[in-house]
């Protein structure tokens, strides 16, 4: 005997299978307790769920009693679908029935169409679309999409390729600022689409489309790379701080790893004491560095570092109390000489 399928948690129309129940009736059919999205419950044969026979707790029947089919949006969609495929008097018949497109036998019954729609993503605002534009209206060839996408997909909405990208005529007229009636008149005269679009209020040169798209793509790529670089720099800073802490704890000044030398470097940043700048300038002038009065702070820092280098790494006595020395540790990464 074939093992029965586990339907727990699976959705069939408005029903979700909750729990498998013992076999029921003479046929020993497998039953499932189901929860309806409208709040009701139902006990349904497993086969009735999987073949689409039962897809609600009965709320559709209640809906029919309270709201006539003719007032349901889905019913209007269904009725219009049948009309354009079967009624030669309908204005769109030539695009559907006139091309041999039909509504399948199953969907001749509205209830069957209703159950399929509710179990395949129907929502107000969506329209039915055939995946294969030359195929029939049938479950395997249909889906629910937004109206804008359907308009782009219709065979009556011709697409034009400009600089490798596909546009509808309406989209191109918006981009170029040329009235659609003007463009259509030019096209009827045999003028190519790129020339028909020229001289709109936007004064668009066709080459600008290529350049603008390229600029947009480059800016997007740059933004993505900037975000990556920012993340990498943050990670570099975090790893550097951790290495500094470990090397300081272990009193390690450098080490070699796979041909690369990592060195703990302490950099000093001399700067004037904020409250004694005037005293510092006087001291510098007294000791022969008066020209620094017209030189920026970076030069002053370099001069103090030079004085320290010539004084065994410490401040000369005449600078004590006038200059503060900030220290910052970093990791120098260099290729090992032996490599």
Could you please describe the fold and organization of this structure?
- This protein is an alpha+beta fold and 339 residues long.
- It folds into four domains: 11-64, no CATH class; 67-153, no CATH class; 159-204, no CATH class; 254-335, no CATH class.
- The chain is 39% helix and 22% strand.
- It has helices at residues 46-50, 59-66, 73-86, 110-119, 147-153, 169-176, 180-188, 193-196, 206-249, 277-286, 297-309; strands at 11-12, 15-24, 29-36, 41-45, 126-130, 142-146, 159-162, 165-168, 254-257, 260-272, 323-335.
- It has a four-stranded antiparallel β-sheet.
- Residues 66-70 have low confidence and may be disordered.
Give the SSE layout.
Blueprint: E1 11-12, E2 15-24, E3 29-36, E4 41-45, H1 46-50, H2 59-66, H3 73-86, H4 110-119, E5 126-130, E6 142-146, H5 147-153, E7 159-162, E8 165-168, H6 169-176, H7 180-188, H8 193-196, H9 206-249, E9 254-257, E10 260-272, H10 277-286, H11 297-309, E11 323-335
Antiparallel strand pairs: 1-2, 2-3, 3-4, 5-6, 7-8, 9-10, 10-11
């Amino acid at each position: 005997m074939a093992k029965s399928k586990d339907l727990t948690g699976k959705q069939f129309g408005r029903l979700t299978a909750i729990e498998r129940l013992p076999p029921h009736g003479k046929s020993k059919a497998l039953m499932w307790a189901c929860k309806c999205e409208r709040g009701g419950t139902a006990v349904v044969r497993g086969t009735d769920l999987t073949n689409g026979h039962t897809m609600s707790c009965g709320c559709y029947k209640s809906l029919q009693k309270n709201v006539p089919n003719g007032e349901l949006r889905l019913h209007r969609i269904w009725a219009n679908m049948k009309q354009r495929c079967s009624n030669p008097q309908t204005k769109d018949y030539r695009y559907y029935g006139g091309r041999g497109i039909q509504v399948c036998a199953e969907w001749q019954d509205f209830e069957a169409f209703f159950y399929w729609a509710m179990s395949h993503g129907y929502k107000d605002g969506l329209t039915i679309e055939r995946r294969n534009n030359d195929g029939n209206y049938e479950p395997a060839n249909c889906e629910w999409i937004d109206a804008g996408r359907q308009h782009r997909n219709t065979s009556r909405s011709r697409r034009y390729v400009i600089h490798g990208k596909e546009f509808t005529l309406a989209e191109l007229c918006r981009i170029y600022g040329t009235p659609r009636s003007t463009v259509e008149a030019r096209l009827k005269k045999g003028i190519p689409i790129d020339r028909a679009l020229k001289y709109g209020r936007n004064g668009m040169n066709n080459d600008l489309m290529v350049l603008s798209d390229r600029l947009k793509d480059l800016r997007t790529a740059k933004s993505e790379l900037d975000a990556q670089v920012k993340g990498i720099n943050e990670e570099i800073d975090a790893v550097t701080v951790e290495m500094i802490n470990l090397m300081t704890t272990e009193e390690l000044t450098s080490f070699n790893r796979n041909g690369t030398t990592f060195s703990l470097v302490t950099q000093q940043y001399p700067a004037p004491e904020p409250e004694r700048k005037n005293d510092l300038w006087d001291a510098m002038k007294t000791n022969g560095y008066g020209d620094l009065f017209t030189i920026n702070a970076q030069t002053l820092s370099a001069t103090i570092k030079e004085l320290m280098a010539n004084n065994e790494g410490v401040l000369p006595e005449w600078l004590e109390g006038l200059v503060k020395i900030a220290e910052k540790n970093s990791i120098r990464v260099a290729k090992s000489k032996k490599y």
